[in-house]
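Why should sequence recovery work at all? Because a backbone constrains its sequence more than one might expect. Tight turns favour small or flexible residues, buried strands favour hydrophobic ones, and helices have their own preferences. The token representation captures these environments compactly. In the example below, the structure is given first.
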């Protein structure tokens, strides 16, 4: 290295870094760069949200498929069990009939159909009328003992004892809906209740009415279960509250189903329930709610303020003790299943919305 180069190098070291190297980076960016950065962040966020929505949709479809599969399996199991019960019942009845005819020396009865089973019309007739074929206690008590059942329960009537025998022998079909009942279910097309309650003397018509009511409420509860299974808010407070309301409704409506089975429901309550169900089936939910209010609260005047001052009665005081009394405070059991009926109405108007929006309950 020559002397000039060495001197130039030393002079450069003494002067320090150049202006370009010593210049700090600018803390400002251009508007175009800021817009590009914002756009890139927005696209990244939208991509992430789209992926989350797609994942939720896949999970929801999976839950819906699982719920539909479970409902299908339950229905197949119910049909299978009902068929097995029917076959056992018919075989037992045929065996008893053959033994009875053999004991009395009567000829064998030919089967009512080519395959040896009862015809559908006969089966429907038997299901409609559960009061046929009464068995006196002299014959009924030994039969119950043979089945391992108690002969007599405390305060049990003859009709209740006969029903217990039919359930034990499989002569009564047990419906495996959300609420298990011995009332044979009817198809959805036959659930339309009549305008008026049949007379107490017409036991067959009243029995069919109780089957219609039980089938309708079981259908609403089953649809409620399926709708909750399809929702993806099981972990939220609203989802847990909805499931709790549905479970509570099933439990509190069991006493009502027992009254349907025995046929000892209060006549005023039965008439009101028929009015409510008929209005709900016609999607007149405001009218159904009015029927529920009349059933639960009633139309009797409520005393407000002072009702008796001095020796003279106030005007219209006699109305306080007249009018239709509500059943909501009749008993705790009645109050609970009436509230469950109201919950079923609230779900029904969502599941089967009315054509006229004015018929939506508030």
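From this structural description, the recovered sequence reads:
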């Amino acid at each position: 290295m020559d002397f000039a180069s060495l001197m130039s190098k030393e002079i450069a070291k003494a002067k320090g870094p150049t202006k370009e190297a010593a210049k700090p980076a600018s803390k400002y960016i251009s508007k175009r760069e800021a817009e590009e950065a914002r756009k890139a962040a927005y696209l990244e966020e939208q991509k992430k949200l789209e992926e989350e929505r797609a994942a939720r949709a896949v999970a929801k479809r999976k839950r819906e498929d699982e719920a539909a599969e479970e409902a299908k399996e339950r229905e197949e199991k119910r049909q299978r069990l009902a068929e097995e019960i029917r076959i056992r019942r018919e075989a037992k009845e045929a065996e008893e009939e053959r033994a009875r005819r053999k004991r009395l020396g009567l000829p064998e009865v030919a089967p009512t159909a080519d395959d040896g089973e009862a015809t559908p019309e006969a089966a429907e007739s038997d299901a409609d009328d559960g009061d046929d074929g009464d068995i006196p206690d002299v014959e009924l008590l030994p039969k119950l003992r043979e089945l391992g059942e108690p002969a007599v329960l405390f305060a049990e009537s003859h009709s209740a004892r006969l029903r217990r025998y039919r359930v034990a022998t499989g002569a009564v079909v047990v419906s495996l809906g959300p609420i298990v009942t011995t009332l044979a279910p009817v198809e959805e097309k036959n659930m339309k209740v009549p305008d008026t309650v049949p007379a107490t003397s017409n036991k067959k018509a009243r029995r069919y009415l109780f089957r219609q009511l039980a089938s309708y409420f079981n259908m609403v509860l089953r649809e409620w279960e399926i709708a909750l299974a399809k929702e993806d808010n099981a972990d939220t407070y609203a989802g847990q509250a909805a499931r709790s309301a549905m479970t509570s409704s099933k439990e509190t409506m069991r006493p009502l189903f027992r009254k349907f089975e025995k046929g000892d429901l209060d006549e005023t309550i039965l008439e009101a329930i028929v009015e409510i169900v008929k209005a709900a089936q016609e999607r007149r939910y405001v009218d159904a709610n009015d029927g529920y209010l009349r059933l639960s609260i009633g139309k009797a005047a409520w005393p407000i303020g002072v009702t008796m001052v001095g020796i003279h009665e106030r005007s219209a005081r006699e109305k306080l003790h007249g009018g239709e009394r509500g059943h909501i405070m009749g008993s705790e059991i009645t109050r609970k299943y009436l509230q469950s009926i109201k919950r079923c109405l609230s779900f029904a108007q969502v599941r089967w919305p009315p054509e006229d929006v004015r018929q939506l309950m508030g």
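A few observations help interpret the result. The chain has a mean pLDDT of 79.
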